[in-house]
Task: structure prediction
Amino acid sequence: MAKILLLDGNSLSFRAFYAMPPLKNKKGLYTNSVYGFTLMLDKLLLDLNPDYALVAFDKGKSTFRHKSYENYKGTRSKTPDELIEQFGYVRELLDSYGIKYEEHDEYEADDIIGSYAKQAELLGHEVIIVTGDKDLTQLATDKITIYYTKKGVTDIDYYTPKFIYEKYGLSPLQIIDMKGLMGDKSDNIPGIEGVGEKTAIKLLKEYETVENVLDNISNISGKKLKERLESGKDDALISKKLATIFTEVPLDNDVLSLTFEENIDKKIQLFEKLEFTSFLKKLESNKDKKGLDINIVLASDKTEINLEDSSIHLECFTDDYHNSDILNIAVYSDNKVYIFSEQDFFANKYIVEFLNSDKSKNIYDIKKVSYIAKRYSLEIQGYVFDAKIANYLIDVNISDNFSKIVNHYLGEHISSDEDIYGKGAKRSIPEIELVNKYIAEVAYLNFKLKTILEEAMKERDVFELYKNIELPIARVLMNMEYEGICVNRDTLSEISTDLDDRINNLEQEIFSLSGTEFNISSPKQLGIVLFEKLGLPAVKKTKTGYSTSVEVLEFLENKHPIIPLIMEYRTITKLNSTYAKGLVKDITSSGKIHTRYEQTLAATGRLSSINPNLQNIPIRLEEGRKIRKAFVPSSEDNVILGIDYSQIELRVLSHIAEDEVMIEAFNNDEDIHTKTASQVNGVLLDEVSDAMRREAKAVNFGIVYGISDFGLSNNLGISRKRAKEFIDKYLATFSGVQKYMDNIVQFAKDHEYVKTLFNRRRYLPEINAKNKLIFNLNSRIAMNTPIQGTAADIIKIAMINVFDYLQNNNLRAKLLLQVHDELIFDVHKDDVKKLEEVVKNIMENAANLKVKLKADSSVGNNWYEAK
Result:
């Protein structure tokens, strides 16, 4: 069975034009639509690997539909000149890819696509249609899937018969009938006046087709609806005809003639003309690789190997390298790839000497390889190039999946991890020859990435960030992961027993208030109790019944005493299952939990803890804080030391915004929230009430997240008028903050990225979007990223310096965990004062800001007591 890719050329050109910023080349030619189209096309070819492809275009304004209905598409606005001038280049682009395109006088692109799709389906092939036009969803079958681009160039819904049924309760063909009844404003299809989507769906669920609806008007309830259906009969029938895709267009090609082969020279000429630098780099790299045969050598612990200019890749069966099988290790050197077993690799004297040396190395995912090396008492020394980290710093929006990295920078197509091993329950290890071939390709392509990515890091001014922060922090994180933290099973068991008792008590209270017993964890049963039995207002409905989401329960919180109990029940049951009971499975035979830190995940540069996530243990509830009691020191002679930054993001904000009022408050060790409340409300510090301070705290922490008067009023339970007044006064008082927010959004619009004090960049390709919601979201990201990202960079610097100190001094202490702004240590009682003093000093001097950084410390016999 072959795979056929059919693209709606006009629709995708429009999508790309409005999704991308208004790019131009030096001659003033607009290129944003072509650029976005290229991005989409590359991604589709990489992800889908189709056997055949075609792009369909609308040729002109007069088609058979215009003859049936003169005003068809009559309300469409004129196509922008900036887009029209790019249509020819989109066709040139397709020529360079070797992809055929087709257009007809009498028919639309939809009809051409529909005709090819049906032809391919009859031959038993799989068809994927990519469009921004929902009309094509009527073609969905078991063999035809419609990729509908919702917004931008990557946000896609996959329309299958199942998806359409779940979304509308209709079959794909009934989409035509739905349009017949409700019309389509974008195409000026009239439909029946006053009939919307909801009514159309309801009618079609009962009568199936437009014709049946019109035949049964007398049986339909509602006088007005009957009148509308009666007077709109002709419009409904012509609308259905207009919405129906014609699938018997006299096509220019047979579907099996739609093979394609790229023309590299044509691509280069076009990309040079359009000044698509990133695409050119991929092509040049791809040309370099042509014709090179990778010679695979099965190596042993005795194999002599030159590692001066090499690339190393260690292959695990799963991402969890703490516990995963190590399949093999590939080393690219001198146009050969040497395949080692784990044991032979770490026993080979040439490799051991190289890893121990100060020589430059190229190792993909250095944290993973260092972790495995540590099992063999081996510390990898010297500068290491790691493409995974480099890609993250160059543009966090690019996936850290190796096949995606390779395609983006080299233009190469390599099998993905899922292609080799499968997915989910079907994941398995294939024949070792296939694994070896795959990891040989990874090692070779990783070698090719080095020069390109190092140059890209230097070009984007993040190479120093790589060398001084991200590479050293990988070593620190590896050692923290390897060390782990001791966890007391008995304490978790006791906490779980207490939580079970609380859950049972909550159940009885809820049953008493509801007058019935039911499954509280079932949204369906809970919805029936709340909205039918107790008569509470149904805020929102889903396809399966009443919504009982957090937002709905928060809205109902003051309307019945049962609601707070249900909210608490959910919190306690999750706490019990995820942590009190859930953490037990993660405790190793040595009594420790070894969390894993994701270094290349968060766009702001923050670290994420996974398997298990120890950063998200809830601490607002006392029951959540008690979970930390189970985290204990490694011996009775040790204690847990916790040191965390005080209000680091606000301190960073005051520095970046250069706000004198904030800077003065921090440098005078004043309570910033009390100071804010005093300034905004015009009262003395000792006249600030708890309510005033609470308002100030909410705005201080929310302002650079784009908090609105609506959001603040909800958070604090105050009127929107009061919330707006407070925000306005706040911005007038802290004028530097307002200036910062205005300036950083403008910078983002001009450059399409923002950066931290340490040059970490976050690209915002949609900051210039015309859609207000998208623009506002990107503006909030632009305001927040420099603050949160700089704070993340600072704590990484502190961690590196603390780790180096512990390595070079004789303190009996280990850095165990990082939880956002807090560091957790296991330290001998006799060394705790010294460590506390040293770490606070390091943390408070990790960055040179206009405000003092402040770190607070606490000590205890477990993590709970150390906070």
